[in-house]
Amino acid sequence: KLPLSLLKTAQSHPMLVELKNGETYNGHLVSCDSWMNINLRDVICTSKDGDRFWRMPECYIRGSTIKYLRIPDEVIDMVKEDAQAKSRNRAELNKNRGGNSSQNQNQRGARSGNRNNFSIRSGPAGGGLGNGGMRGGNSGQGNRPAAQGNKL
């Protein structure tokens, strides 16, 4: 989650991208997706030898080809501040909820306590439950499939 939030925050900022093949791309981040595919604008591409350069108005880089990204410190600071603000908000929400948490858990437990108890269903004359029916009961062994020999 952190790398993607960092990239979202870095939109419209300059960055350097080095690919696994050694090429580098310097440009401004336009957009990114959850696979770290990115779009750059005003790009300068440098060959892996560092002896050839290309200027491009824009380019698309597949996330799986990226070796690393270099992002300005100001963007990293913005993400840190945002994470700290979120953790403060979470702490405050939990503090405000604190008194009711055990009461809420008790209510949840009472609702889910009868989760596996099925009601007894009556079937055709003769007491059968029908094909694929379930029997309820308090035997402590849980619910069992209907007895063999049930016919339609």
TrEMBL record:
<dbReference type="InterPro" id="IPR034101">
    <property type="entry name" value="Lsm4"/>
</dbReference>
<dbReference type="Pfam" id="PF01423">
    <property type="entry name" value="LSM"/>
</dbReference>
<dbReference type="GO" id="GO:0000398">
    <property type="term" value="P:mRNA splicing, via spliceosome"/>
</dbReference>
<feature type="compositionally biased region" description="Low complexity">
    <location>
        <begin position="97"/>
        <end position="112"/>
    </location>
</feature>
<dbReference type="GO" id="GO:0000956">
    <property type="term" value="P:nuclear-transcribed mRNA catabolic process"/>
</dbReference>
<keyword id="KW-0508">mRNA splicing</keyword>
<dbReference type="InterPro" id="IPR047575">
    <property type="entry name" value="Sm"/>
</dbReference>
<feature type="compositionally biased region" description="Basic and acidic residues">
    <location>
        <begin position="86"/>
        <end position="95"/>
    </location>
</feature>
<dbReference type="GO" id="GO:0120115">
    <property type="term" value="C:Lsm2-8 complex"/>
</dbReference>
<keyword id="KW-0539">Nucleus</keyword>
<comment type="similarity">
    <text>Belongs to the snRNP Sm proteins family.</text>
</comment>
<feature type="domain" description="Sm">
    <location>
        <begin position="2"/>
        <end position="75"/>
    </location>
</feature>
<dbReference type="InterPro" id="IPR027141">
    <property type="entry name" value="LSm4/Sm_D1/D3"/>
</dbReference>
<feature type="region of interest" description="Disordered">
    <location>
        <begin position="86"/>
        <end position="152"/>
    </location>
</feature>
<dbReference type="InterPro" id="IPR010920">
    <property type="entry name" value="LSM_dom_sf"/>
</dbReference>
<comment type="function">
    <text>Binds specifically to the 3'-terminal U-tract of U6 snRNA.</text>
</comment>
<dbReference type="GO" id="GO:0003723">
    <property type="term" value="F:RNA binding"/>
</dbReference>
<comment type="subunit">
    <text>LSm subunits form a heteromer with a doughnut shape.</text>
</comment>
<keyword id="KW-0747">Spliceosome</keyword>
<dbReference type="InterPro" id="IPR001163">
    <property type="entry name" value="Sm_dom_euk/arc"/>
</dbReference>
<feature type="compositionally biased region" description="Gly residues">
    <location>
        <begin position="124"/>
        <end position="140"/>
    </location>
</feature>
<dbReference type="GO" id="GO:0005681">
    <property type="term" value="C:spliceosomal complex"/>
</dbReference>
<keyword id="KW-0507">mRNA processing</keyword>
<protein>
    <recommendedName>
        <fullName>U6 snRNA-associated Sm-like protein LSm4</fullName>
    </recommendedName>
</protein>
<keyword id="KW-0694">RNA-binding</keyword>
<keyword id="KW-0687">Ribonucleoprotein</keyword>
